[in-house]
Specification:
This protein is of the alpha+beta class and 303 residues long. Helix content is 33%, strand content 29%.
Length: 303
């Protein structure tokens, strides 16, 4: 790269190329860390397109960087959560391999994740040390690792559940999702994102004596969020999610589990799920939420 990068707000037309850039960048990191990914961007685009459409619609900021020939060499996007947009989350930040350390990353973060914005600033970060150095300069620091646990779901996982699982089919159920997420994470996703989840995934609420104590989402494209008012509720929830995954034909199932959530980690290891060597990290400007009873959205673009 010889000239200075050009930055501009992104549009929906940029989504396919942003995805290719994401795939190239994350595949490069996976090879460098000894955990190579399978497939190509073209193979995976159809599966990721609905998620990118959602991120287009809920983005607070979305910027791309181009070289002198108007080729896309980087992009960054952020979202806001909560009634007052108090949680400011960087959902994506990728620079094409070979274009790092040329002002591209700094310029993208200044625009998509500006300093001083958000009461809580959060990032689900990969282990790319170059990006993590920038995130530290962007007023965040590592709070804890997020562990991937992958396994093969079994249809008989949900026998003898103490909690009653009920499908979420109405606005009342979504209101309970909002209440649970506010109690556990501190912020809710808002009606548009919750509607997208319910269109794409099965949603469930879990009752203990008539009281809703947990929620989950499971679909062909991923799982999460999963949240419980108390860690002790998680084993029943996870066994039910595992059984539903098997019922809808999922041959494999993966969870993104915050390291403080020892109940979920031990439960899944006991169910013969395996730890993925590709680890992500929650970075934030301060501690927030109760992550000992929370499992994040997969794929892990956002909490």
């Amino acid at each position: 790269m010889t000239g200075a990068p050009r930055f501009r707000p992104a549009s929906a037309d940029d989504s396919p190329e942003c995805f290719r850039l994401f795939w190239d960048s994350i595949s490069d990191l996976a090879v460098r860390t000894g955990t190579p990914w399978e497939g190509t961007a073209d193979d995976r685009w159809a599966g990721f397109r609905p998620l990118y459409a959602l991120l287009e619609e809920i983005a607070a900021e979305w910027w791309v960087a181009e070289d002198e020939e108007e080729r896309l060499i980087g992009y960054a996007r952020s979202i806001e959560r909560g009634e007052n947009h108090d949680l400011f989350e960087l959902s994506e930040f990728f620079v094409r391999p070979g274009h790092q350390s040329a002002g591209v990353g700094r310029g993208l973060l200044e625009r998509a994740f500006p300093l001083g914005r958000g009461e809580v600033r959060a990032i689900v970060a990969t282990g790319d040390v170059r990006a993590m150095a920038r995130y530290h300069r962007a007023d965040t620091s590592i709070q804890f690792p997020i562990l991937g646990l992958n396994g093969f779901p079994s249809a008989d996982a949900a026998t003898d559940l103490r909690l009653a699982a009920e499908p979420i089919t109405d606005s009342g159920g979504l209101a309970e999702v909002v209440d649970i997420e506010r109690a556990v994470l501190g912020y809710d996703r808002g009606p548009h994102e919750l509607g997208w989840l319910l269109d794409r995934r099965e949603g469930y609420r879990y009752r203990d004596g008539g009281r809703t104590v947990a929620i989950s989402f499971i679909g062909s494209d991923g799982v999460g969020p999963i949240a419980a008012l108390e860690p002790e509720h998680l084993p029943d929830v996870l066994r039910h999610v595992e059984a539903r995954a098997a019922a809808i034909g999922r041959e494999e199932l993966g969870f993104e589990v915050p390291a403080p959530n020892v109940v979920a980690i031990r439960h899944l290891l006991g169910r013969r799920f395996q730890l993925d060597p590709f680890v992500t990290y929650l970075m934030a400007n301060r501690p927030f939420g109760h992550f000992d009873r929370y499992l994040g959205f997969t794929p892990p673009f956002v909490l």
